[in-house]
């Protein structure tokens, strides 16, 4: 059974930050973030098509970038969880809408 794409994407954002923070190796976190993003993009392309996959992939990158200024206002972990939740919800909604 495949892991739902919404969890892959959210896990990439959360896991990437966690790995970078706990290992103190930002590139290592970046590898996890990029790997999960690539897997999510492939799954999105397979399930909802290339245009929707491009939009969701753009949201994934924007969430990563947006988590940095948001963290200055609400804290690092709340920011990461917030953007991960937003990406997961968007992924779920797009995939659910296309499967009907």
Automatic annotation (TrEMBL):
Parts of the chain that traverse the membrane: 76-94
Entry keyword set: Membrane, Transmembrane, Transmembrane helix
Tree of life domain: Bacteria
Entry annotated with the keyword Transmembrane helix: yes
Protein name: Integral membrane protein
Species whose genome carries this gene: Streptomyces abikoensis
Source species taxonomy: Bacteria, Bacillati, Actinomycetota, Actinomycetes, Kitasatosporales
């Amino acid at each position: 059974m495949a892991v739902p794409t919404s969890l892959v994407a959210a896990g990439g954002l959360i896991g990437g930050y966690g790995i970078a923070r706990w290992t103190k190796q930002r590139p290592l976190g970046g590898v996890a973030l990029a790997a999960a993003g690539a897997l999510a993009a492939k799954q999105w392309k397979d399930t909802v098509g290339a245009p929707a996959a491009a939009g969701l992939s753009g949201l994934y990158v924007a969430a990563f970038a947006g988590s940095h200024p948001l963290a200055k206002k609400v804290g690092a972990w709340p920011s990461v969880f917030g953007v991960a939740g937003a990406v997961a919800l968007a992924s779920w909604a797009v995939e659910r809408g296309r499967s009907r």
